[in-house]
C-alpha cells in the first residue's frame, strides 16, 4: 500500500534567496523548461518544509488539543476558528501590514493627478511588489490552513466510533475537503480588505474634504447604504446556500453584487458632483478627476473586496462549523493501550458477564451477559439468526465497542456447514448467549441448532466455497498469523489500482473544449445577444468618461470668458456640443443621470446573460457525465479508483460551478475596461498608439509562454488531487479493518504524502501566476511612464479635463491590465477542469438496455436453460483471456 511521494526533488523555494522569493525569481526556471517541453512531476520540487502536511497538521493539532482542554475546563464549546487564528497569528498580522502599505501608497496617485504637470509615479514598483507579495502570502496561508484541516479531518476519521460513523458519511467528508475548504482561498486575501477598507475610506474623504468640503459626505452616505445592502445580500446568499441549495438563487445574488460593485465609481462620482453643484459650488477638471481617481482607488477595496470578503467570511465560518461538528464527533475508546498483554491469562479472548451496545445514547443493550473464553488456535462458531448480535460481538472483539485481548480465528456466521470444524460454539439470540461449549457438550445438553437459529437447512454437502475453503483457512492459521491475511491483500489491490497513472491530455487547451462548453450553455442567438450587451454597455461605460472630460473642458473654457463663449464657439466647444455638453449644468447632470441608468440596465443584462450561460453549462455538463457514468462498463470502475471518479464530480465540477463563472465574468468586464480605456487614451493622444502596440506585442508572447507551463501544472494538480479522495474513501470504507491491524499511522503517513504532492503542484501554480502578474506590472509601469512623459513633451492643445482623462485611464490600465492578461490565462488553466469533465462525457457505454432488433419472443424463455458453447472472454484493452473455450449447460 505504501506509495512513495511522486515529487522527490528538494524544494526550490527553500533554497532560494530572500530576493528571489520576494520577486518570484525561483519560479522562472519552470517557464524556461515549460516553453521547450511538457513538464512532468520529475521536474517539480517538493513543497516548502513549512508547507508539508505533517508539520502543518502537528501545529494545528496542538492548538486544537489546547482548545479542547480549555473548553472542557470552562464548560464551553471548542472553536476550530480560534485554533486556526492562534496557529497562524504571525502570518495574519504580516498580511494585514502588507495590505495597509499597498493601499496607503495607492492613495498617493489621485493626489498626483491633482498636480498633473508634476505627476510621476516611481513608487509604482513598490506597490506591485507589496501587492503581489501580499497576495502570494495570503494564498500560502490558505494552502497551509487547508492542508492542516484536511489532515486533522483524516485523523478524526481514523478515530471515529462506530456510532459516529453513522452520523456522517463519505460524501459529506469529501465535499468538505474538495469544495468547502476552497472558500478559504477566497477569504485569505479579501479578509484583510475588511480591516483596511474603513481606514482607506476615511483617508479618501479627508483628502476630498480639502477639494470639495462637505459635498464629499454624499459619497460616504452612498457607501454606507451600499455596505448595508451588501451585508444583507451576503446573509441572503448564505440562506440560499444553507436552506434551499439553489445555485440559481446564489448566482442571482452574486450578479447584483457584481453590478453594483462594477458601477460603484460612476455612482459615487455622480452623486458627489451633483451635491457639489446643488450646494452652489463650481466644478473644474482638477476636482472632478481627483474625485474620479480617488473613487477608482477605493472601487475594489471598499466596494468589491470588502463586501465580498464579508460574504466569503460568512461562507468560511459555515465550513469551519461543519468541520468543527465533525471533529467533535464521538471517538473510539482504545482501552488496549492500558492493558499489559504479558499479564493476560492463557485465553486470548476473555469475556465475563459482558454487556455492550453500539452507542451510549441507545436504550437497547446489544450484548447481554456474554461470558466466554477462547484458547489460542481454537475455531469458534458464533451462530444465530439475523439480528441476534453476531456483528455486535465481532465489533466488541475488535474493540470497536469494547476492548479486545490477544489474537485468534473467529468465523462469524449464521450458516451451519462449518460446525464440524468448530472447537466451540456460541449461540446468540437477541444479544444473549443461549448456549456456549464444544459441539459434543451442546449435543449432550440436547441443543437443537436448527430450532435456535431458524428454519435454515443444513446442506453442507452441496456447498462449494469459491474463494477459499474453510479447511485451508484452518490449516494455514495453525501458526497464529491471522493478521497477515485480509488487510495486506486489500492494501496491495488498492496500491495496484492507484499505481496506474491517470490519463492526462497534453499541450494547450483545444478550441473544441471552449466550443463544447459554450454549446452546453447557450445557443447562437443567445450568444449574439450577449456579445451585443457587452459591446453596447462597454461603449457607454467609456463614453461617459469621455463625456465627463468634455464637460470639464467646456466648463473650464466657459469660466475663463463666459461672454465670449456665448458669442462664438471654438471647434473644441462645437465638438463638445456634439457630445451633448450643455451650458446649463443641470442639463448636464440630467444627461449624466440618464446615461447612468441606461448603463446600469445594460450592465445588469450583460452580467445576467454571462451568469445564465455558465449556470446552464454547468448543469448540462453534470447531467451529461452522470448519465455516462451510470451506463459505463464494470471495467471502467475496476480501472479507476473511487477517488479519481469523485475528483471529477467534486473538484472539477466545483470549478465549473464556482471558479469558472466568476473568471468568465471578470474577463467579460475587465477586458472591456482595458480595451475601452486604451482606445479612449489613444483617441485623445494618438502617440499612445505606439506605446499600446508595444505593450500588446510584449504581453502576447509572455502569455503564450505562461500558458504552456501553467496548463500542464494545473493538469498535474488535478491528477495529484485524485489519490487524496481515494485515500479518504478507502479509509472510511475499511475503517474497522485498518484499526484491527493497527495501520492508522501508515494511512496517516500515506495521506500526508498525497497532500504534499498536491501542495507542491498548487504552490507552483500560484507562484507562476503571481510571477507572471509581477512581470506584467513592470510593463504597465513603462506604459504609464510613457504616457506621463508624452504629456510633458507634447502639452499643446491638451486641457485639464483631457489630461485628467488620460491619466485616470492610465491608472485604470495599471490596475487592470496585468489582472486582465492574468485572468484570461487563469481562465484557460481553469478550463482544464472542463476538459477533464468532457473526457468523462465520452466514457464508452454498455450495450443499450433495449435492443429492438434482437427483442426475444413474447413467450421467451420456454425452457429456462443456460448454454455456454465454446465461450472465450477478454476484458477491454487487455490481451489475456480470462475464460477459455467454456462449454456447459444449466438446465431449469
TrEMBL record:
The keyword Membrane applies. It is a multi-pass membrane protein. CDD domains: ABC_6TM_ABCC_D2. Residues 138-261, 528-829 form the ABC transmembrane type-1 domain. PROSITE patterns: ABC_TM1F (PS50929). Keywords: ATP-binding, Membrane, Nucleotide-binding, Repeat, Transmembrane, Transmembrane helix, Transport. It comes from the Eukaryota. Belongs to the ABC transporter superfamily. ABCC family. Conjugate transporter (TC 3.A.1.208) subfamily. The chain crosses the membrane at residues 187-206, 212-234, 255-279, 525-544, 589-615, 663-681, 687-706, 772-794. This is Multidrug resistance-associated protein 4-like protein. GO terms for cellular component: membrane. It holds the Pfam family ABC_membrane. It is found in: Membrane. The keyword Transmembrane applies. Gene3D superfamilies: ABC transporter type 1, transmembrane domain (1.20.1560.10), P-loop containing nucleotide triphosphate hydrolases (3.40.50.300). InterPro entries: ABC1_TM_dom, ABC1_TM_sf, ABC_transporter-like_ATP-bd, ABC_transporter_C-like, ABCC_6TM_D2, P-loop_NTPase. GO terms for molecular function: ABC-type transporter activity; ATP binding; ATP hydrolysis activity.
Amino acid at each position: 500500500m505504501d506509495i512513495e511521494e511522486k515529487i522527490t526533488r528538494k524544494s526550490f523555494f527553500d533554497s532560494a534567496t530572500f530576493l528571489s522569493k520576494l520577486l518570484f525569481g525561483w519560479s522562472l526556471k519552470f517557464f524556461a523548461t515549460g516553453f521547450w517541453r511538457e513538464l512532468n512531476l520529475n521536474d517539480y520540487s517538493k513543497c516548502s518544509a513549512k508547507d508539508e502536511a505533517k508539520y502543518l497538521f502537528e501545529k494545528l493539532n496542538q492548538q486544537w488539543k489546547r482548545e479542547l482542554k480549555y473548553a472542557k475546563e470552562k464548560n464551553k464549546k471548542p472553536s476550530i476558528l480560534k485554533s486556526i487564528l492562534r496557529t497562524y497569528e504571525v502570518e495574519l498580522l504580516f498580511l494585514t501590514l502588507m495590505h495597509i502599505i499597498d493601499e496607503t501608497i495607492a492613495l498617493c496617485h489621485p493626489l498626483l493627478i491633482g498636480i498633473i504637470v508634476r505627476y510621476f509615479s516611481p513608487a509604482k514598483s513598490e506597490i506591485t511588489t507589496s501587492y503581489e507579495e501580499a497576495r502570494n502570502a495570503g494564498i500560502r496561508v490558505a494552502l497551509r490552513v487547508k492542508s492542516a484541516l484536511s489532515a486533522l479531518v483524516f485523523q478524526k476519521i481514523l478515530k471515529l466510533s462506530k456510532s459516529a460513523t453513522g452520523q456522517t458519511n463519505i460524501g459529506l467528508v469529501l465535499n468538505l475537503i474538495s469544495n468547502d475548504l476552497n472558500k478559504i482561498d477566497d477569504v485569505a486575501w479579501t479578509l484583510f480588505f475588511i480591516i483596511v477598507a474603513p481606514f482607506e475610506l476615511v483617508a479618501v474623504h479627508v483628502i476630498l474634504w480639502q477639494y470639495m468640503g462637505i459635498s464629499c459626505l454624499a459619497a460616504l452616505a452612498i457607501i454606507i447604504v451600499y455596505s448595508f445592502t451588501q451585508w444583507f445580500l451576503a446573509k441572503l446568499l448564505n440562506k440560499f446556500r444553507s436552506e434551499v441549495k439553489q445555485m440559481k438563487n446564489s448566482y442571482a445574488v452574486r450578479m447584483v453584487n457584481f453590478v453594483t460593485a462594477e458601477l460603484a465609481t460612476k455612482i459615487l462620482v455622480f452623486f458627489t458632483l451633483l451635491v457639489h453643484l446643488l450646494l452652489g459650488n463650481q466644478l473644474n477638471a482638477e476636482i472632478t478627476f481627483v474625485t474620479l481617481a480617488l473613487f477608482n482607488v477605493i472601487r475594489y477595496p471598499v466596494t468589491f473586496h470588502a463586501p465580498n470578503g464579508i460574504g466569503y467570511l460568512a461562507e468560511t465560518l459555515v465550513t469551519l462549523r461543519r468541520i468543527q461538528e465533525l471533529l467533535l464527533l464521538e471517538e473510539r475508546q482504545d482501552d488496549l493501550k492500558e492493558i499489559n498483554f504479558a499479564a493476560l491469562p492463557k485465553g486470548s479472548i476473555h469475556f465475563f458477564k459482558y454487556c455492550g451496545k453500539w452507542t451510549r445514547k441507545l436504550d437497547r443493550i446489544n450484548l447481554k451477559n456474554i461470558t466466554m473464553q477462547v484458547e489460542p488456535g481454537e475455531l469458534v462458531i458464533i451462530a444465530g439468526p439475523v439480528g441476534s448480535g453476531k456483528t455486535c460481538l465481532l465489533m466488541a472483539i475488535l474493540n470497536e465497542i469494547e476492548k479486545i485481548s490477544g489474537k485468534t480465528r473467529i468465523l462469524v456466521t449464521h450458516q451451519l456447514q462449518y460446525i464440524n470444524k468448530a472447537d466451540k460454539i456460541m449461540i446468540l439470540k437477541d444479544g444473549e448467549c443461549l448456549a456456549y461449549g464444544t459441539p459434543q457438550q451442546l449435543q449432550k445438553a440436547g441443543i437443537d441448532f436448527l430450532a435456535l437459529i431458524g428454519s435454515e437447512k443444513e446442506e453442507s454437502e452441496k456447498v462449494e466455497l469459491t474463494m477459499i475453503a474453510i479447511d485451508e483457512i484452518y490449516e494455514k492459521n495453525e501458526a497464529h498469523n491471522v493478521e497477515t491475511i485480509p488487510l495486506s491483500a486489500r492494501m496491495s489491490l488498492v496500491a495496484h489500482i492507484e499505481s496506474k497513472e491517470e490519463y492526462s491530455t497534453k499541450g494547450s487547451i483545444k478550441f473544441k473544449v471552449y466550443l463544447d462548453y459554450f454549446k452546453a450553455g447557450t445557443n447562437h442567438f443567445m450568444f449574439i445577444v450577449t456579445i451585443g450587451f457587452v459591446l453596447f454597455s462597454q461603449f457607454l461605460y467609456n463614453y461617459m468618461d469621455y463625456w465627463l472630460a468634455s464637460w470639464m473642458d467646456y466648463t473650464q473654457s466657459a469660466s475663463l470668458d463666459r461672454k465670449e463663449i456665448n458669442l462664438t464657439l471654438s471647434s473644441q466647444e462645437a465638438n463638445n456640443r456634439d457630445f451633448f455638453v450643455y451650458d446649463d449644468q443641470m442639463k448636464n447632470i440630467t444627461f449624466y443621470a440618464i446615461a447612468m441608468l441606461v448603463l446600469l440596465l445594460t450592465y445588469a443584462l450583460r452580467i445576467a446573460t454571462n451568469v445564465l450561460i455558465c449556470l446552464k453549462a454547468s448543469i448540462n455538463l453534470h447531467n451529461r457525465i452522470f448519465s455516462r457514468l451510470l451506463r459505463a462498463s464494470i471495467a471502467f470502475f475496476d480501472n479507476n479508483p473511487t477517488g479519481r471518479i469523485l475528483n471529477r464530480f467534486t473538484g472539477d465540477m466545483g470549478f465549473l460551478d464556482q471558479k469558472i463563472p466568476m473568471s468568465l465574468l471578470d474577463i467579460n468586464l475587465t477586458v472591456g475596461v482595458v480595451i475601452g480605456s486604451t482606445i479612449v487614451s489613444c483617441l485623445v493622444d494618438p502617440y499612445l498608439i505606439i506605446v499600446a502596440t508595444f505593450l500588446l506585442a510584449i504581453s502576447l508572447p509572455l502569455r503564450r509562454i505562461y500558458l504552456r507551463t501553467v496548463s500542464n501544472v494545473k493538469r498535474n494538480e488535478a491528477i495529484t488531487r485524485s489519490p487524496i479522495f481515494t485515500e479518504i474513501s478507502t479509509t472510511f470504507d475499511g475503517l474497522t479493518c485498518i484499526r484491527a491491524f493497527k495501520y492508522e499511522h501508515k494511512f496517516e503517513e500515506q495521506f500526508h504524502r498525497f497532500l504534499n504532492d498536491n501542495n507542491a503542484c498548487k504552490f507552483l501554480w500560484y507562484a507562476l501566476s503571481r510571477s507572471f502578474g509581477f512581470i506584467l506590472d513592470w510593463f504597465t509601469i513603462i506604459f504609464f511612464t510613457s504616457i506621463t512623459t508624452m504629456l510633458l513633451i507634447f502639452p499643446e492643445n491638451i486641457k485639464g479635463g483631457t489630461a485628467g482623462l488620460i491619466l485616470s485611464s492610465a491608472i485604470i490600465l495599471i490596475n487592470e491590465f496585468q489582472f486582465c492578461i492574468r485572468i484570461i490565462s487563469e481562465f484557460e488553466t481553469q478550463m482544464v477542469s472542463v476538459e477533464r469533465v468532457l473526457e468523462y462525457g465520452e466514457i464508452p457505454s454498455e450495450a443499450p438496455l433495449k435492443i429492438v432488433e434482437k427483442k426475444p419472443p413474447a413467450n421467451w424463455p420456454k425452457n429456462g436453460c443456460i448454454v455456454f458453447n465454446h465461450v472465450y472472454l477478454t476484458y477491454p484493452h487487455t490481451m489475456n483471456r480470462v475464460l477459455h473455450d467454456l462449454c456447459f449447460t444449466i438446465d431449469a
